[in-house]
Amino acid sequence: MDRFRNVSPFIVMDILDRARRMEDVIHLEVGEPDLDAPPGVIEAFEKAVRDGKYRYTPALGLMELRETISGYYKERYGVNVSPERVAVTPGTSGAFLIVYAMLLNSGDKIALSNPAYPCYRNFSYILDADPVFVALNADNEFCIGTDELEGLRDIKAVQVSTPSNPVGNIYGKDRLSALIDLSRRNDISFICDEIYHGLVYDRNEHTALEFDDNVIVINGFSKYFCMPGFRIGWVILPAKLVRKAEMAIQNIFIAANTPAQYAAVNAFDGDYLGKVRAVFRERRDYLFPALSGIFSIPVKPEGAFYIWADVSKYGLKGSEFAEQLLEKHRVAVTPGIDFGTVGCENFVRFAFTRPIKELEEGVNRITEFLAGLQN
To answer: What is the tens place of the pLDDT at every residue in 299-331?
Structure first.
């Protein structure tokens, strides 16, 4: 059986590659922060290399980093997480791979959002698991709820993301707690992607670990910490899964990048990270009203750095819109089909990962493009 028969390309990366070969492009496609890493990160990376700290670490990661992550959960959320339960991975993609491999056997069902980050479904397909898609829209606030989960049968795991990609919505405390409680009562493994924690603008986010020690939480340094190319993520595991995760990492990755782990220890700079959040809030507060006057946007993003917009009133599918906008006006955006099927084909995702001056130019070009469509 071909495990790749349903695996789709990562469309946004294809668009980015194409846009990089063009001149004068406004990049609103890729979810990669443009800000510098926290001040101590580069120095720590260079020092690690100079000091010869580039041998393998233990599979679960550098203990100093695991302890730092543990302390972060205590300080930020008031949650006690033993460093022994922290596994460091090559990006969050590495975390998803080992978690799915541990939890899902061939044919097992995992409940996923539609729309959602495409790697969720693609990892499921690669492992010959069976993703079951829950259609999300404004009616359910783009969140999987207890009603949706109760309507599914024989589910082995459920995966949510908060704040979400591509919508930017947040699972509130009551909704998240209820979903975790239902999962526990039905022996469903609960996985929470919290990679956009910290990039939250209107209310406090809650980690799933506030409600149950047996959930699996995945996070990393690529978004809030502005370290995408370092490829360092982490996963908080129930104690019973730690040894299994260690064996998976030993065999698949050996360990995450050593100098990058030393660098990540120095990433938890609260003052700098507060400035990062403020920059992205300012961009959100510019781009959301600017695009709301042009497109139908079902949800104001409370977190992450994306806007999910319906472009169908202009007579184009999202993929057609993205293609023509890039070719004619040099603005790169991501078509909705990268994030799902049913209900996503009319959408595009805008990433506010560029300075406001470039966002303004992008809006001007989009306005010109739409004026041309209507003539």
So the answer is: 999 999 999 999 999 999 999 999 999 999 999
Q: Are residues 215 and 316 in the same domain?
A: no
- Give the phi and the psi of residue 86 in degrees, each rounded to 5: -95, 125
State the pTM of this model: 0.96
Judge contact between 348 and 334, C-beta under 8 A. Answer: yes
Report whether 263 contacts 336 (CB < 8 A): no
- Residue-wise pLDDT for 44-56, tens only, equals 999 999 999 999 9
Considering the domain architecture, whether residues 180 and 328 belong to the same structural domain is answered as no
Using the 3D structure, point to which of 212, 245, 268 is the last residue of a domain.
Answer: 268
Sequence-separated (6 or more) residues with CB below 8 Å from residue 232: 88, 89, 90, 91, 220, 221, 256, 257, 260, 261, 263, 264
Q: What is the DSSP letter of 128?
A: T
Cβ contacts of 200 within 8 Å, gap of 6 or more: 163, 170, 277, 302, 303
